[in-house]
Design goal:
The protein contains 9 helices and 10 strands. The protein has an 8-stranded antiparallel beta sheet with strand order 5-7-6-1-2-3-4-8. It has a two-stranded antiparallel ribbon with strand order 9-10. By secondary structure, the chain is α+β, with helices and mostly antiparallel strands. It has helices at about 5-20, 35-40, 115-125, 135-145, 150, 165-175, 185-205, 215-225, 230-235, and strands at about 20-25, 40-50, 55-60, 60-65, 75, 90-95, 100-105, 110, 265-270, 275-280. The structure holds zinc ion.
């Protein structure tokens, strides 16, 4: 499932490919045809992300997209006068001067008004990729419940944009027991988690890839600092992002293997609808 870094990266690519110009909007599959006609030929003013929600402002209307588990929305270049014929069930197609973007399999694709956008935003917890948010709001919401921190990190009303990989890995990075009740999470422990999520998601947006291994993060931050990461972020080729670094995690999908920190066999269990992976040996804080 796309986590918050994917949607923020997508918003940025949409803004660069189509921003401040009239955009062609169609629904090749037909399911969004009437709404697409209202947007067609109007100026795409902005594309922004809140957690896993994408908002595209076209003229005075707002397109709301949530990719859900299987949705995709690649931005691709085309040559000549027009993009290629759509392939498969394309709910929505955006066409600009040099790029097109095909939305397939979204959980949500709808026109909404400002009021509806406000209520979606109000229901979300703070997004680590938004510098204006109040991380204490997440702490207050965590503390109201005895549900485990492993489940709470997946709750978009607590923190927006976190999915399964980030929740498993951030808890392992800080040796936190995923079953620690939210009500007992201390302020210090919360700031440790939050600051790390901010760091991890920023690196994730730049590379379009979830990076949680410290050696990879340090290398990624070096590339961001010296500018060598820029061409990767700036590419609008439609090629799948997210394979610059070797795909490697401490816990995710590693149940049964030894923990690389303490050697204990990693475990898995269904928590908040997705498989939680953790190390019962060294994840004892909380
Ligand atoms: Zn361990």
């Amino acid at each position: 499932m796309p986590e918050g870094h994917t949607i923020h990266g997508l918003a940025d690519r949409l803004a660069r490919a189509f921003g401040d110009r009239p955009v062609g909007v169609t629904s090749p599959q037909g399911r969004f045809a009437a709404d697409a006609a209202l947007l067609d030929g109007r100026v795409l003013e902005a594309a922004t992300a809140d957690g896993k929600h994408l908002f595209v402002d076209i003229d005075d209307r707002i397109l709301h997209v949530h990719l859900g588990l299987i949705g995709t929305f690649p931005v691709m270049p085309f040559e000549g006068d027009a993009p290629p014929e759509p392939v498969g069930a394309v709910r929505l197609r955006l066409v600009g001067e040099q790029h097109f973007a095909d939305l397939r399999g979204p959980m949500v694709c709808a026109l909404i008004d400002e009021e509806a956008r406000d209520s979606i935003r109000l229901a979300l917890g703070p997004d680590p990729l938004d510098p204006k948010v109040d991380p204490e709001l997440a702490l207050r919401r965590l503390r109201r419940t005895r549900r485990g921190i492993g489940a709470l990190l997946m709750d978009q009303a607590v923190v927006a944009g976190i999915g399964n990989v980030y929740r498993c890995e951030v808890l392992h990075r800080h040796r936190i027991d995923p079953f620690t009740p939210g009500s007992t999470i201390t302020e210090n422990l919360w700031w440790e988690i939050w600051d790390d999520l901010v760091r991890l998601l920023h690196v994730g947006v730049v590379f379009g890839q979830i990076l949680t291994m410290e050696d990879q993060i340090i290398e990624a931050e070096r590339m961001i600092a010296d500018g060598t990461a820029e061409p990767i972020t700036a590419s609008l080729t439609g090629e799948r992002l997210g394979d610059f670094f070797e795909r490697r995690f401490s816990t995710y999908k590693r149940a049964g293997e030894p923990c690389d920190r303490c050697g204990t066999t990693l475990r898995s269990e269904q928590v908040a609808g997705r498989t939680l992976y953790w190390c019962p040996g060294c994840q004892t804080r909380g």
